[in-house]
Amino acid sequence: AQSVSQHNHHVILSEAASLELGCNYSYGGTVNLFWYVQYPGQHLQLLLKYFSGDPLVKGIKGFEAEFIKSKFSFNLRKPSVQWSDTAEYFCAVNAGDSSYKLIFGSGTRLLVRP
Amino acid sequence: EPEVTQTPSHQVTQMGQEVILRCVPISNHLYFYWYRQILGQKVEFLVSFYNNEISEKSEIFDDQFSVERPDGSNFTLKIRSTKLEDSAMYFCASGGNQPQHFGDGTRLSIL
């Protein structure tokens, strides 16, 4: 069965610090990978996605993620975080099956201190 | 940008009662989903719906759960006889193919 692991449950950073959130998945076939963000009181929003092609994908708000197939990883990065990045971040995978269902990681709560 | 809308935002129900959670997916999307998130846990897939039928369901989606698209716009999740452990945030999502767009969720509290 597919699974997704996010290693950091809580991350606290100061503004302008660099961010990297880990995500590993278990599935041997072709996968589509996503990062979603949930700001306090809001719905899940897509940050970025990887389907194929360049393994370094850029998303909204200065976020990027790198797909490393050999490591089954899809880590999220941002060079310089802002207070407004305080949110919960979810990595998700689907294996391209007929339902396109998403399997989520447990999420990482990011707190950015001003 | 079109949005997925869910009602109500919060539902409080006595154990054993039926509850219906409502969703209006994005109009030109073809795939519809329900997910849930128990407090402190990860978001879990419940069911997917395509072409007016369930395309996949998880182990969580037992006989107490059902989904329906009663008209061209609404997509509902019914829990027939709620249990305490059904207390969670329920998210509706829709996707033309992928990726999925999510609603704000319905917080279901079972007393």
List the topology elements.
The complex is a heterodimer of chains A (114) and B (111).
Chain A: E1 3-5, E2 10-14, E3 19-21, E4 24-26, E5 32-38, E6 44-50, E7 56-58, E8 64-68, E9 73-78, E10 87-94, E11 103-104, E12 108-113
Parallel strand pairs in A: 2-12
Antiparallel strand pairs in A: 1-4, 3-9, 5-6, 5-10, 7-8, 8-9, 10-11, 10-12
Chain B: E1 5-7, E2 10-13, E3 19-24, E4 31-37, E5 43-50, E6 53-57, E7 65-68, E8 75-79, E9 88-95, E10 101-102, E11 106-110
Parallel strand pairs in B: 2-11
Antiparallel strand pairs in B: 1-3, 3-8, 4-5, 4-9, 5-6, 7-8, 9-10, 9-11
- Briefly note the structural class of the backbone of chain A: mainly beta
Strand content of chain A: over 45%
Main sheet properties of chain A: 6 strands, mixed
Q: What is the quaternary state of this protein?
A: heterodimer
Radius of gyration of chain B, in Å, reads 13 Å
What's the β-strand tally of chain B?
Answer: 11
Cα Rg of chain A: 14 Å
The percent of residues in helical segments of chain B reads under 10%
Order of helices and strands of chain A: EEEEEEEEEEEE
Q: What is the average per-residue confidence, as pLDDT of chain B, rounded to a whole number?
A: 92
Structural overview:
Chain A is mainly beta and 114 residues long. Helix content of chain A is 0%, strand content 51%. In chain A, the strands form three sheets. In chain A, strands 2, 5, 6, 10, 11 and 12 form a six-stranded mixed beta sheet that branches. A four-stranded antiparallel beta sheet of chain A has the order 3-9-8-7, with no helix packed on it. In chain A, strand 7 and strand 8 form a beta hairpin. The mean pLDDT of chain A is 92. With 111 residues, chain B is mostly beta strands. Chain B has no helices and eleven strands. In chain B, strands 2, 4, 5, 6, 9, 10 and 11 form a seven-stranded mixed beta sheet that branches. In chain B, strands 1-3-8-7 form a four-stranded antiparallel beta sheet, with no helix packed on it. Chain B is globular and about 35 Å long. Chain B starts with a strand and ends with a strand. At the A-B interface, strand 5, strand 6, strand 10 and strand 11 of A face strand 4, strand 5, strand 9 and strand 10 of B.
